[in-house]
Specification:
The chain has 600 residues and is of the alpha+beta class. The protein contains 19 helices and 23 strands. A 7-stranded mixed sheet has the order 8-9-10-1-11-21-12. A 6-stranded mixed sheet has the order 15-20-13-18-16-17. It has a 4-stranded antiparallel sheet with strand order 4-5-7-6, with helices on one face. A hairpin with a 2-residue loop joins strand 6 and strand 7.
């Protein structure tokens, strides 16, 4: 159940209770046939349509460019009169007024680029006609060489504030320097310093930047794709504190006002250098309760809402509303992470670490084989199909291991036979008894709040399944940020239910399990570093996949450090006011590519 904080939301819209009543009537009037409606897979280049009944949208696997320059972004046609109209977007949270790169903790760095305030060097493109997963943005093209990543920087990118003129090579170099400075909170800083020799990044031509490789890993592309570019002159003029509170980028939308955890109002940049938005104004509202967001869609007070699968039937009951899923890297998944498996004794350079496995935890154990039995018992306790059919309303599928699973283009019947995890509570109890826990045990069970209503419901649905084999989860619904210090300190000692990709058509996400990364789910083994090195050394994507399928996944299945439960894709709810939205990448947290939204 959701708690409704009426006072806050009354600032955004008037009759909340009336809206909820209308929404409730709409839900009750929705027929069983409507809730089971099926259509073809959602196309990225058509008007928004309803999602299929089974979440099997499979994008085309497109290899990233390696030697040839990436395609240049192209200006899309707009009406002769320029941007017009306004849309209202209701999200679970808009976050703080935080914009300076050095101070950008996740997920606000994603927000600032995804909604179009700041530009980046590359952008992701998963649409069917994409020639590469990476497209040039402020970097008009790029060259991937044995020694470095070489970028060509555009000379026609204007800052929102005209007193700062055009974005320059110096601004890009400053952004690299600022984002990697000691004490930075930017999420990708460690990936930047690992992959590139930051002190040697330099201008090597009038509009050229050369980024020498340091120790390249699977995150090399995430740095130029995710680093929001900022003006050095503005920083020099107003300083760090004001820079953080003053949004000023070069993206398709500029900020009019931002009140932390309340709203962000943006306006389109006419004649934008890359893509002029169709819609002139966008009001993004902080509306934590999903029932209220659905009510706003129903009453016309929101054009787009963030939603989870539990609200599918409610949105289908709204006149003219649609459920939209754009191109995606794969299904989102609910993953169970038994933390404390700190087995890495040496870092990537061969230096000794201070890692110590938390053997007092049943799923780690004094004897590693007993810990594995407990983890496998927990995995066997989950009735994946029931969760997919009930909690996910048929819009999800069972999943088992990391990164690859059912509906993946490379998944086979043989993999299902070898790596599928059967629901078998009796066998799970027997494994617990063999591991020394015939009566089960209690454990801290973290279900991070505020990420996704779908995730929260899936995680909650597993509690009685754990209880059925004698385990007693003690639920903690703290926000992810409150446990992040423990993650960074490598002291995680709970089981957490985390939102993670169910599969990907590209092998990049393996870095998330690498012990090289700052972000780590509380599990460290030496083997993933070796797999990662060999994947990087593979000359083609197919050969990289050979390592994953023949070595990485068998190791993962044998050791089961973590396990997937179900995969799903949470749609975005849009009102009948929206005609088209040709988003390039799906994201259920932020309205990705909002400058491509067209009104009727």
């Amino acid at each position: 159940m959701f708690t409704i904080h009426v006072q806050k939301h009354l600032k955004h819209f008037g009759l909340v209770w009336m809206a909820l009543l209308i929404a409730a009537v709409a839900i009750s009037c929705s027929s069983d046939d409507d809730s089971k409606d099926t259509t073809s897979d959602v196309a990225a280049t058509t008007a928004p349509t309803e999602v299929p009944a089974t979440a099997t949208v499979i994008p085309t696997s497109v290899a990233a460019a390696t030697a040839a320059p990436a395609a240049t972004a192209t200006q899309r046609p707009i009406s002769p009169s320029g941007p017009s109209g306004k849309i209202t977007v209701a999200l679970s949270g808009v976050g703080p007024d935080n914009y300076e790169l050095y101070q950008l903790a996740w997920p606000w760095n994603d927000r600032n680029q995804f909604i179009g305030i700041y530009d980046t060097l590359f952008y992701d493109d998963r649409s069917p006609n994409a020639t590469s997963l990476l497209q040039g943005s402020v970097a008009s093209n790029w060259q991937f060489t044995e020694d470095a990543l070489v970028l060509t920087i555009r000379d026609d990118v204007a800052w929102h504030d005209s007193q700062y003129g055009m974005l320059t090579v110096e601004d890009v170099l400053w952004s690299f320097e600022r984002g990697s400075a000691e004490g930075t909170r930017w999420t990708r800083a460690e990936a930047l310093t690992t992959n590139y020799k930051v002190s040697e990044i330099s201008q090597t031509g009038p509009y050229e930047i050369t980024m020498p490789w340091n120790t390249r890993d699977l995150r090399w592309r995430s740095v130029p794709r995710d680093m929001t570019l900022q003006s050095k002159k503005m920083f020099d003029d107003i300083g760090e504190e004001l820079m953080n509170l003053t949004p000023m980028g070069s993206g398709p939308y500029k900020v009019i006002s931002h009140q932390s955890d309340d709203h962000i109002n943006v306006e389109a940049v006419n004649n934008h250098w890359r893509e002029t938005p169709y819609v002139k104004y966008m009001d993004i509202l902080d509306v934590p309760e999903e029932t209220v967001r659905v009510a706003m869609l129903s009453t016309g007070q929101a054009d787009i809402i963030q939603m989870g699968l539990p609200s599918v039937d409610a949105v289908k009951g709204v006149d003219g509303a649609k459920l939209v899923v754009g191109p995606a890297t794969g299904l989102t998944g609910a993953q169970i992470v038994p933390t404390g498996q700190y087995y890495q004794t040496e870092d990537k350079d061969g230096n000794a670490t201070d890692r110590t496995p938390l053997t007092q935890l049943p799923w780690v154990g004094e004897d590693a084989s007993d810990g594995l039995k407990v983890r496998r018992a927990m995995a066997m306790a989950i009735d994946r199909q029931t969760i997919a059919d009930t909690v996910l309303g048929g819009l999800g599928v069972p999943h088992y291991l990391w990164n690859v699973g059912p509906t993946h283009p490379r998944w086979t019947d043989k993999m299902q036979e070898e790596w599928g995890i059967d629901y078998d509570p009796e066998a799970a109890k027997a494994l617990l008894a063999e591991a020394g826990f015939p009566d089960g045990f209690e454990f801290e069970y973290l279900i991070p709040s505020g990420l996704s209503s779908t995730l929260e419901q899936v995680c909650q649905s597993m509690i009685p399944m754990f209880q059925a084999i004698g385990l007693e989860p003690k639920v903690d619904t703290s926000a992810y940020g409150s446990v992040r210090p423990r993650m960074l300190a490598r002291t995680m000692d709970m089981v957490w239910c985390w939102q993670e990709s169910g599969w990907n058509v590209d092998p990049d996400p393996l870095y998330r399990f690498s012990t090289n990364a700052v972000w780590n789910p509380g599990i460290e083994y030496p083997e993933p570093m070796d797999f990662e090195a060999r994947i990087l050394g593979a000359p083609t994507s197919d050969e990289a996949w050979d390592v994953i399928l023949t070595e990485w996944l068998p190791w993962f299945n044998d050791n089961l450090p973590t396990f997937q439960t179900v995969g799903y894709t949470s749609p975005v709810g849009v009102a009948k006011t929206i005609d088209k939205w040709e988003m390039r990448v799906h994201n259920d947290r932020w309205p990705r590519d909002p400058w491509l939204i067209q009104l009727k």
